[in-house]
Amino acid sequence: MKLKEVVKTEVADRKKAGFGLPIQMFVGLLVIALGFIALLYFFGPGGRSQLPGLMPAPVFGVVVSPDMTIVGVDPGGIAQTSGVKAGDKLDKVDGQRVTSLDATRAKMLDDLYNQREITLTVLRNNQPVDLKLKSTGAKGNPGGPTPTPVPQNYAYF
User: Quick check: is 18 in a domain?
Assistant: First the structure.
């Protein structure tokens, strides 16, 4: 078949079909778009999925130096509403002595994510102060910029 004949045959077939093909294409695109919207709804930022790792983690709202001193507290964050202040030094989390930033961050964020209450012991003016922390359901500032500047070797969580 020559190209001219193929084009004529294709045009004739489309005329016979009427609006069938465009409607099928529209419905197909609509299904794809709705599927994409559903994926965003369930698995996008702030989505409804209950699978671990797919929802934003809660943000405690502190910047901690390598010597475990809290150098910054986000206004309105879980830390501030629980009574944490800049200058406090992390001492214990749920009765266990704090030894590293990474282990402390992992433990606290896991507890907050799972809505478990944390007993945080800080040293304020060299005196131990016990603070109770619990996620309020607000997930802090996931995906946004860190509200407080974080120097190298410091941690934000």
Answer: yes
Residue with tokens 């489309």: 14
pTM: 0.56
- pLDDT per position in the chain (157 positions), as tens? 677 787 677 767 766 666 556 777 888 899 999 988 888 777 666 555 444 444 444 577 888 888 889 988 888 778 888 899 999 999 988 888 888 887 887 787 777 777 778 888 999 999 999 998 876 554 444 444 445 556 777 877 7
Tell me the residue range of the domain where 10 lies: 3-43
Asked whether 133 and 112 are in contact (CB, 8 A), the reply is yes
Within a domain: residue 50?
no
Residues 100 and 147 placed together within one structural domain of the fold: yes
Amino acid of residue 69: T
